[in-house]
Design brief:
72% of the residues lie in helices and 0% in strands. With 303 residues, it is mostly helical.
Length: 303
């Protein structure tokens, strides 16, 4: 037996999303409905905004950021320019600048629920949980049917240990954003934290149904099955996690645990070596060491 061995956790940041990622072409409708009477500089600003949206569709992120910046400079009161700049900066991993851009959009248009929701999401990923909570609540107040706001609010509640409230938020997000797998995934994690394994598995399976290539969901499902003693089911889930993302180190580590319990030592050594290499390449020294320790145990075991 491998007493005390645990599978590596899934990063809490997984799943933080922004409504309209990828340029939010749908904001064109917002622009048409809400722009004030045009001033001489505004047609150029709109042109730059539309140019930025087109560049996003072409996967030219740096050029899109530059276009959105120019649009915001040409017309500082053009909220969609700041909003789309925030989305692009968020996509580039520039969280603080993204939050600043979303904040500017909310100051220009205090009813811009999506901007408040994305401001909250960016702050949450930057671990500014209390401010994230405030802005997400504002987004929900402005638009109670905004699924992404309920989802990110659920993440805030989950991180704060308010699991019942988080579960309610994730369920509401699932109702409002039926094609998004993340609310179901995090609902499963919340149930898991409560020890409600059947509910957790059901939610994770729902996430997988929505997104059949969701490695974190397969991995979490496999972890639950492993701890329940369903080794074949766990191995299948870990394999599907690896098939969904061949660089997902946790999948190989989990498979190694299963193989060890099944006394398939050669198979265990193969996948644990690969897990160790991936963890090392990805800069995860702690779990590279854990994989190494498990690998040594497999090598010292008697078939």
């Amino acid at each position: 037996m491998l007493g005390g061995i645990v599978v590596p956790p899934v990063a809490e940041s997984v799943g933080v999303v922004e409504e309209g990622a990828g340029g939010e072409v749908g904001r064109r409708e917002y622009i048409a409905q809400s722009l004030p009477p045009l001033k001489p500089t505004q047609p150029a600003a709109l042109e730059k905004l539309n140019q930025g949206l087109a560049l996003i569709q072409q996967n030219k992120l740096p050029e899109a950021i530059a276009a959105f910046r120019e649009a915001a400079q040409l017309n500082p009161k053009l909220a969609p320019a700041h909003y789309n700049l925030g989305l692009a900066l968020r996509q580039a991993g520039q969280l603080q600048e993204a939050a600043d851009a979303f904040y500017q959009a909310t100051q220009i248009d205090p009813d811009f629920a999506l901007a408040f929701a994305n401001l909250g999401a960016a702050l949450l990923e930057g671990n500014n949980v209390q401010q994230a909570r405030n802005y997400l609540l504002k987004a929900i107040e402005l638009n109670p049917n905004l699924g992404v706001a309920h989802y990110n609010y659920g993440l805030v509640l989950s991180q704060s240990g308010e699991l019942e409230e988080a579960i309610a938020a994730f369920k509401r997000a699932m109702e409002l954003s039926r094609n998004a797998p993340e609310p179901a995934y995090h609902l499963g994690l919340a149930y898991w934290q409560q020890g409600k394994m059947d509910e957790a598995k059901k939610a994770l399976q729902q996430a997988i149904k929505i997104s059949p290539k969701y490695p974190e969901a397969y991995y979490s499902l496999g972890s639950i099955l492993f701890h329940q003693g369903d080794l074949d089911g766990a191995l299948q889930a870990f394999r599907q996690a690896a098939e969904s993302n061949s660089d997902y180190a946790n999948a190989y580590y989990g498979a190694g645990l299963v193989f060890l319990h099944q006394n398939r030592l050669s198979d265990a050594q193969q996948v644990l070596e690969y897990a160790r290499e991936l963890y090392t390449a990805q800069g995860n020294a702690e779990w590279a060491d854990n994989a190494e320790a498990l690998l040594e145990r497999s090598q010292n075991s008697t078939p």
